[in-house]
């Protein structure tokens, strides 16, 4: 695996610290952000633990606001979710990621799936599957190169979740369960969900060296995933020691600052070399 230098793509404007999520100014600005083309996707590579090759790219949203500076998704996604703006924003994210992935394939990069994060609110939109099909058609991206990341919260309405996930699988996209192990305990449902990848939350990964309990949770998640024919990816891998330990537990894929931070699309080309 390659180690990339620490870069500064994630420095955000501190001005926004004083803004609460109910701040009207932020809401007004967020409303205009799509039209003003202020959103941008960064991409973080995921690596195969055995071959060390890039096996996927996670698209992560950034808001480059003319008025607020670079705003972290942690600071605007909750507001976007509350106001429903996440639906058009999320649709933009899917279209942009598909377009970009198709573009990389045209440039001759080895094809890998791009994954996008899906909010609960988007997941429950009745036209979600239709919209995704349309975007795949428009962008001419093969569905197997789009992955949707969902969280355990979908298990709160398991019957709807299973129906939607099956519909998504039937159009050929991949499904990843994000932040696995942190949320609503869905052990009852996980085997009924058609999931391709389990992502171990970075909170466990970061405790792996110091904390015996985190280690056993990780070992359990990996075994569970494998027993259910899912591959398992560890996120938030920051040190060689973490990667080594994860490998001894047969973790399939790695994502984290040790390998690369999320970077602008232009930088991805060089990372495949
Ligand atoms: P997430 O989906 O769990 O994404 C992983 C987060 O961990 C990203 O933060 C990523 O930059 C960060 N990360 C990656 N490697 C490391 C590492 O080694 N150490 C540490 N400490 N962090 C690492 P980011 O980009 O700030 O995104 C935060 C969250 O915002 C995401 O968490 C996701 O829940 C949400 N988000 C981002 N983009 C979108 C989007 O397009 N739509 C929706 N609905 N949510 C998004
Ligand atoms: Ca994610
Ligand atoms: Ca995650
Ligand atoms: Ca998270």
TrEMBL record:
Domain of life: Bacteria
Location of the EAL domain: 23-273
Range covered out of full length: 546 to 818 of 818
Protein name: EAL domain-containing protein
